[in-house]
Design goal:
The structure is a homodimer. Chain A is built from eleven helices and 14 strands. Chain A is α+β, with helices and mostly antiparallel strands.
């Protein structure tokens, strides 16, 4: 297995909002039978950012990652924000995260946002590996922080009961280890571009002309159409991804999928039926945390040692757009 | 001059909205004396996207760039969206642009957004050069498309009369020429993070809880504080940028600055006083087109042959965050 671009994950941290909302509570609210949401959507509880902003969660997660790496914000050379939701339209997410660190006010490292919606972390990790390979950086922070609750429509039980909030951060560092990126691919299948959308709030339906209503300002998903599309595109994507490699999906030590939905994760388990034990599934207690799903699952796997030094790890996700992103890397903390 | 990462600009195109709004018209609307806006802000007229969406303008600009490069959308390996404004919150801008090309519906090249607000094009160009250097791409499209009018407050004459709309696209290609990136730097100065902001529309003041009012949902700028900050940071930035190089700012053939404001461009002319003729200034007829300002000015310079084969070109901008971005490259179309 050839390492294309070396990196280590020197630090990993996450933050989960204090408020936990059980599916029973949502079932009462929506007059659904007890157990309906877990059975249908696969979620028992999720964290909800009732008190926390995106920036606050991001700061906590990054602080935890810095502690884990045993470095300080002063050692960071670049901060990449990799999320779909945001506190403000302007400035970008990453600048607000840096601004939340008082000790960073006189540091001048750059802040940049990357957005491929739910696969933003995968795109950001490839980008970070490219930046490291340019030789100008030592430590790059990637932070995903998502707060979905404002953008959910209580009249749409499928999405209302699926999403959760949270943040995760990693420190990607230059290394002498034989670890890092083996393969990255991102593909956008435009036929499905508008199967997942928030219609209001941009220039198309600006708040100026379009007052708030939950249907207009919430995440809308044509679940069946989307799943049909993914059923065709995902196997093709995976075959193209692994074809040039000497490893197959079955050989990968740990698969960290986007926690998109019960059916989404099941589809992946189907594709990897010889080795379903190595797929991280946190949907039950986290819900779909948009772009934070993959890094939260990755950070958890590092924390609980499911992902070990020298292991191969495959990040895989689908995203609004519709994009499928995959990144295979060899893990090292050193 | 060492080329760090080779690229050519195989194609360049722009789109300017049909509607032109003169400053006289705004002066009547706001009861300002005739000539006040040009004298104070430096803008005589600007294009306004009354009929055009961000995605529509982006498609026109990209079509023009593809024609100029004599290639088709089928030859594109990656599309980078580099804008601050957007039609929809989800999906990302670049996926919507690809979706607007009917002939691209069955193509699977990836779409990714980069956001450093007004310097997004600079960040995207560095990113594209990194992607090209990885060897997996031949042609990368970068598209900036901005529509500011929904986000302007008529009660704030300084910003209301400053901004304009438009789009520009370039095709960045692998090349055998000795052209491409000489130096790139982006630095974020967090002290000024909130001097430029749109307060409403994100999670901090969500439309759900905060009905539309122009002060809340429009771009707000603490111009004096910002300018004071830039006066300190810009000279330092430029000195650090050129220090390791064998060329100085005065040697550069063409400087394409972000058309931030009259004072912003003047400050730059002051810094480059030995050679002010080589600074592109389109503020008068375009206004500040956010992230599209730099590529519109770049594309114009290529079209009118102010930028010629083999010339060095320095892109420089300030952005909300507050970020200063600079990219020096040697131009080739081949």
């Amino acid at each position: 297995m050839k390492i294309q671009r070396a990196f280590s994950i020197k630090g990993a941290g996450k933050y989960l909002p204090k408020t936990v909302i059980t599916s029973s509570k949502i079932e009462s609210e929506l007059n659904l039978p007890e157990g309906y949401i877990f059975k249908r959507i696969g979620v028992k509880s999720r964290h909800s950012a009732k008190e926390e902003s995106n920036t606050f969660m991001a700061k906590q997660a990054l602080n935890n990652a810095l502690k884990d790496a045993n470095i300080s914000i002063k050692d960071i050379d670049c901060l990449i924000g990799a999320s779909a939701t945001f506190d403000y339209i302007i400035p970008n997410r990453s600048s607000l995260i840096k601004n939340a660190f008082e000790e960073a006010l006189d540091l001048d490292f750059p802040c940049i946002d990357i957005n491929t919606v739910c696969t933003s972390f995968i795109s950001a990790l490839d980008y970070a590996s490219l930046l490291l390979s340019s030789g100008d950086y030592q430590h790059i922070a990637i932070v995903s922080s998502e707060s979905s609750s404002n953008g959910l429509n209580p009249n749409d039980s499928e999405t209302y009961s699926l999403f959760g909030d949270g943040a995760a951060a990693v420190i990607i560092s230059r290394t002498n280890q034989k670890s890092g990126l083996i393969q990255y691919k991102s593909k956008t299948y435009s036929e499905a571009a508008k199967y997942t959308i928030i219609e209001g709030g941009g220039n198309m339906n600006h708040t100026k002309n379009t007052p708030y209503d939950p249907a207009m300002y919430s995440f809308k998903m044509q679940g069946k159409k989307l799943l049909k599309n993914v059923k065709t595109t995902l196997p093709k994507f995976l075959s193209q991804f692994f074809k040039p490699l000497t490893v197959s999906l079955q050989d990968v030590n740990l698969i960290v999928p986007h926690q998109a939905s019960k059916l989404g994760i099941r589809m992946l388990i189907g594709l990897n039926k010889n080795n379903s034990a190595n797929i991280v599934d946190q949907l039950e207690n986290h819900g779909n945390c948009i772009a934070a799903s993959i890094p939260i699952a990755l950070v958890s796997s590092i924390e609980n040692k499911t992902l070990k030094e020298g292991d191969t790890c495959f990040l895989l996700g689908t995203a609004a757009g519709m994009t499928i992103g995959g990144l295979l890397f060899k893990y090292s903390k050193l």
